[in-house]
Request: fold
Amino acid sequence: MKAVILAGGRGTRLGEETLIRPKPMVQVGDRPIILHILEHYAHYGLTEFVVALGYMGDQISEYLLDLQRRSPAGPDGLRPGDWTLELVDTGLDTDTGGRVKRVAPYVDADAFMLTYGDGVADVDLHRLLAFHRAHGRLATVTAVHPPPRFGQLHLRGDQVVRFDEKPLHESLINGGFFVLEPAVIDLIDGDETSFEHDPLDRLVAGGELMAYRHESFWQCMDAPRDKEYLDALWAAGDVRWQPWRTDR
Reply:
């Protein structure tokens, strides 16, 4: 099974970081976030990657190809030299759905995985895949709770009676880590299609989108505070999105 990584966006909300590098190349700890993501998939035996490039895609290509040449041992002794990489230029301004459609020739006629190049989680990919195969629909999205932004005050009148640093969010959002059947690509019209709108709406309307509930760690890197949070976890040796690591 192949894993498609969407790595072509501009990442403007990260500010100065993405003026000089694409968002997947922004570092968390001592390595770009895209490497954290690839290592996650490789840990579960998924080592055939299709990387959809766009903004400053040459930086991602050069980094990954150099990494393969050097092939340093990663977690569990995994080596990037053993990975298969298809690095596909999907256009500078192509939307997420358009990028998926452009990599269709590189995806086999079987189900494939898809995620974004700016988010990490401790999703058990074996369980995710088993869930997808069991329900028999066209698509599975990993549903996650949005990370809390602010602590929550509980008041009695004007008196604070409790402070929750990380209040529980009952809502669920799209956390990436999709499993998709090839027929999903037929629901994408072209380069201007956002995968998160028309294709997913059509899947919902047809009863073909199922949600795998992930209750553990998930974190995107949309804004500087997200990077700061991930960096702080890394510095503390708390790489909770890769609990198998032995080098932290």
Observations:
- The chain has a mean pLDDT of 91.
